[in-house]
Structures are given as C-alpha cells and as structure tokens.
Amino acid sequence: MWKKLTIVFAAFVLIAFAANSQTKLSPKWEELTAADFRDAIAQSKGVCVLPFGILEKHGPHLPLGTDLLNVRYAALHAAEQEYAVVFPEYLFGQIFEAKHEPGTVSYSRVLQLNLLQETTDEMARNGCKKIFIVNGHGGNESLIPYFAQSQLEKPHDYVVYSIIGERNRAGGPAKKSTGIDYHAGENETSNTLVTHPDLVHLDRAKQESGADQARVKLPEDVYTGIWWYARFPDHYSGDGSVASKELGQWHIDAWIASIVEALRAIKADDTSLKLQNDFYEKSRRPLDTKQ
Ligand SMILES: [Zn+2]
Fold this sequence. Notes:
291 residues; 4-stranded parallel sheet; binds zinc ion
C-alpha cells in the first residue's frame, strides 16, 4: 500500500514539476519564443519593463555601461518576484554632457524622443499596455517625465509609468565619504560591487578627483545645461574608493523592492488608461466638454 502511494506521490511530483517548468517563463523578451511571448504577456497582465541605461564615463574605475548593467540587474531581480516582460538593453538616452569623454554614445534630441516613442509603440502593439520605464541614469531624469507627459499629445492605447526620485535610500551601513556623491562615488560603486564585482576597479578610484569644482557661481535655483560640466567635468562625483558591498546590497535591495512594489501597483491600476481615453476624447472637442 505504502509503496503504491509512494509511486503515486512521486508521479504527482513529477507531473507538477513538468507543468511548472513549462509555465516558468523567462522575463527577458529576447529569450522567449513567439508562442511563449504570448503567454508571457498574459502572465504579466500586459505589464512590461523598459530598463533605461546609457553609455558614459563613470569615474576612472567603473565601466561605461554601469547604469545599464545596474538597472537591468535591479529590474530582472524584481521581475523574478513580480513577473513582467523585460525589454532588451536600451541605452538611447540624454547624455550630451559626457560627449567629451571616450566611449560616450550620445544620440540627438529628436532621435531620443522618436526612438523611445517608437519603442513603446512597438511594445504596446505586442500587448504591453502598461509600460514601466525603470531609469538607471541620472541624465534621463528630465527626459523620462517629459516623455510621459508627451503621451497626452495624441491618443495611445497604453500607459507609460516610471519611478521618479532618488534610487539610493537613506540609512543602512554607515557611509565613509561625507561629500556629494552623485556619480561613480561611494553609492554607485557600492551598487556595482553587488551587480558586477568583476567590472569594478577599486584600485583606480583615486586616480581622479570626484570633488565638486563649483566653477559657475549662480543661485541654486538658476538652471543651465552646463551645470554638470561646471561641477564635475571628469564625470566623477564622490569617492568610489571607499565603496563596500554591504552598502551596495542595502541600496540594491531597496531598489528591487521599490520596483516590485511599483509593478504590483501598476498591475492593479485600471484607472489610468480609462482616464487617458477620457482625456483624449474630451481633448478632441474642448468646446463641447464644458458648459
Ligand atoms: Zn551611473
């Protein structure tokens, strides 16, 4: 009797395992077959992630693709917890301010916007009706909200979402550096020690200074495009030499958690698209919509 039961149980486990391995889909768009892609869109409830990186200098010690590598690490780990289809490597953002550094790839303003629009249009045509842009690059922080705002220009059958705000959370292991830490400094170097430790050259981090050179004197609320070059002309802000894996793990865990939380909220959101459609309809005939 027991033997029989054991055999039945083993068979059950095997069938369950086989069924599970059939339904376990990669979150990576490029790894799915066409048929699996259809299942993936259903499983993700039409939520697709567009991790947005860049190619630019990161101090003397981090790889050019740091932002792309880190944002993909965070997005793919988040998609393991809350399934979503993740778009392949995307790095066509705003990086004019690093054009004087080797290895920077900087597309024109028009192409940045057109390529992003055509990319999200194509994603939506393939069923991604909720597109979540996860940004890994500080230079995109104006571009992405502007892109999201410009979705109201004309009708789209999908919604663009993104997270706005600081990627590094306060607290956690004590920081060793005390100054400004915007780019390739202690925070970002620590993050990269977690995501791609083999690409971090800590021994080179002191070869250049990441100090604020403050070469333009203007009130804090007066903005110019040259502000970054005025302050950090070597594309280094902070001190990467004191980075630690512990601090990086703290930031990366928080980043992944914030993406997971956003993914769940985006999946549950059935209001934004309705309101968008309502808006498009009313904006076609503004004089009819108000008494
Ligand atoms: Zn970066």
